[in-house]
Amino acid sequence: MAANEELLKQLAENIYGEAAGKTIELLIRKGEATDEEVAKYVGISVNDARRLLNYLFESNLVKYRRIRDEKIGWFTYFWRITDDPVDKIVGHRISKVIEKLKRRLEYETSSTFYICPHCHRRYTFEEATESMFSCIECEQVLESFDNTHIIEKLEKEIKRLEEIKEDFLGIGTE
Ligand SMILES: [Zn+2]
Q1: Do 102 and 116 belong to one domain?
Q2: Among 47, 62, 83, residue at a domain's last position
Q3: Which residues constitute the domain of residue 126?
Q4: Number of folded domains in the chain?
Q5: Centroid of ligand 1 to alpha carbon of 126 (angstroms)
Q6: Cα dihedral across residues 122, 126, 129, 131: positive or negative
Q7: How remote is the CA of residue 111 from the centroid of ligand 1, in Å?
Q8: pTM, rounded to two decimals
Q9: Are 111 and 133 in a shared domain?
C-alpha cells in the first residue's frame, strides 16, 4: 500500500471505524467495487454498506461512477478511493469539525443556563422559565449554571483547529 493510501485508510478508520477502514482496503486492492462487494468483504448488510459509502463520499474519501441498468432502470455504483491529496481531505475534515464547534459555541453563548443540582440536567433560560425553575426529572429547584469554562474551552479548540487547518490547506493549494 502506498503511503497516501495507508493514510486514507487510517483516516477512514478514525472517522467511521473499522468497517470504513476495511472498505478503503478493498477499494485499494480492487480499484473499484460495488455496494454488494463492499458489504460482502466487510461483513455488513448492503444497506449498511451504502450508508457507510455515502458517509465516506461526504468526507471526500471515496468517489464513484454509476451505470444505469437499461432493463430495470436502477443504477449500479462503482466506488473507488479519491484521487484528492490527503492533506486537502484532512483540511476539509477539520473545517467540518470547526463548523460543528462554532455551532456549539453559538448555543453556549445564546442563553444563560440553569442546572439541576441533583441530576445535572441542563436548561436554557427559556426552558427553565417553562418549568418554573424546577427540574422536570426530579423536581429540584434549578440553580444558575456558569458555562464560561465551556465557552473558553470551545474558543481555544476552534483557534487551535484553525491553525492546524491553515497548515494543511497551505501546503496543498499554494
Ligand atoms: Zn434533576
Answers
A1: yes
A2: 83
A3: 87-173
A4: 2
A5: 16
A6: negative
A7: 19
A8: 0.66
A9: yes
